[in-house]
Write a structure and sequence with these properties.
With about 240 residues, the protein is an alpha/beta fold. A 6-stranded mixed sheet has the order 1-3-2-4-5-6, with helices on both faces. α7 packs across α8.
Amino acid sequence: MANSLGQPSNRETSRSSAAPRPGGETGDQPIVFVIDDDDSVRRSLERLLRSVGLDAQTFSTAREFLAQGLPDRPSCVVLDLRLPGPSGLELQESLIKSGHDVPIIFISGHADVPSSVHAIKAGAVDFLQKPFSDQALLDIIHGALRRDRAARQERAEIAGIRMRFDTLTPRERDVLGLVIQGRLNKQIAGDLGISEKTVKFHRGRVMEKTQAGSVAEMVRQADRLGFKPTTGRERFPLGGREV
C-alpha cells in the first residue's frame, strides 16, 4: 500500500494469530491490528483478542503495519499514540489520505488533551488511557468492527447501484433526472421534445435497469449515488464521469 511514511522495514517482525481456514481463506472473519512498540502490551492484547475468538495481528511500528496492507475483511486498528518513527497520529493521517476508512482506537500511557482531541476529530473511534480494563477495550473493539462491517456493506450496495445506473443511456438519464424532479410524463415529453409514449418507454427501461421497485426507491438510489438534479441537462456522477 502506497503511503507517505516511507518504505517499511522487515515484515517478519509482525506477529499474526489469524487462523487460516481451508484454502487459506479467512472470509468475513474480522481481524484486529495492534500497533504498539511495547512487546508486553502486544502479547497481552493478542492473548485477549484470541480469548474472545478474534483474529489479531501485531506490529511494533507504523511502517511494519503499512508494509502488509489492509485485507479485504472487517477490521479495526488498536493504535498507540507514541511509536518509534511515524507516530500514531501520523499513521492515522496517512490512512485517511490513502482512502482507508478503517476504524482506529487510540491507546496511550502519555496522552495529552490536544492529541486526543485531534485524533477524535480526525475520526478515531475512541481514545483510551493506559492502563484500561480489558472489557472496556473489547466493548469498543466490537463496536468498531460492527461499524466497519456496516460501512463495507454500504460500499458494496452503492457499488451495485452504480453498476446498474452506469447501464443507462444518455436519454434514459435525461428522463431519470426529470422524474427525480417530480415531473409528469407529459411534462417530461415537452421538456425533451419527445412523445409521452416514448417517455413511458424510457421510464420503464430506467426502472428495469436500476431494479427499482418504485419511483421512491429509484430516487433513494440516485440520492445514495450523490446525484443532484440541475437546471437543464442533468449531470450524473456515474462511474467517475459526468454525463
